[in-house]
Give the backbone structure.
Amino acid sequence: MLTLWGNADSVNVQKVMWCCEEAGVAYQRIDAGRHFGVVDTPEFRALNPNGLVPVINDGGLVVWESNTIVRYLAARYASGTLWPEDPALRSHADRWMDWTNSTLWPALVPLFRAYMRTPPEQRDAKATEAARLESLAALTLLDQALLGREYVAGAHFTMGDIALGCAVWRWFALPVERPTLARLESWFGRLAQRPACRKVVTLPLSR
Ligand SMILES: N[C@@H](CCC(=O)N[C@@H](CS)C(=O)NCC(=O)O)C(=O)O
């Protein structure tokens, strides 16, 4: 059975859990990261020298970096579904996975930290508003890209929706002003109907 290290409320760990659930991969999860610690132990650093979760061990193969894990699992266990076999289609899933880490998540992180990790009296209102606007700009771009698409790679749910959906859930779950982005909301509504998403992603955010 695959072993996954990481706390269940981590955005990056949720990508891996959601992928396993969709692909029907059985896994055991070991709490690590945040208040669970573990990530600074020599044993964990031998698995991931970065000291970050998620990490998996699948039959002796250790993999870290959440999007790499999702790609590995999709290619190995869900080829033709989560992993589009057509390279052109796959490039759409891939680009939104990379965009999640390069553009959307860096915009969302300060917003997430302000509301979930900072007491109200210590919040920097200006920086928080700047983060909201930056997140909104990124999500407006995504909303436009979803024109004529059910999912980010086209007509079918893929690994691209998993990585992106975990980050976008934070936007919807945070107590921020959200102008209507109709295509984004419809797309996320489709993701949120999936039992695997409801089981491991669309849960209350924890502080
Ligand atoms: N680029 C990495 C980032 C991993 C990351 O930042 N993980 C966070 C949790 S989301 C972490 O391990 N933080 C240290 C901790 O929780 O102790 C990935 O996508 O896997």
User: Anything to note?
Assistant: The radius of gyration is 17 Å. Residues 10-12, 33-34, 39, 52-54, 65-67 surround glutathione (CB under 6 Å). Residues 67 and 98 are 8 Å apart (CA to CA). The mean pLDDT is 98.
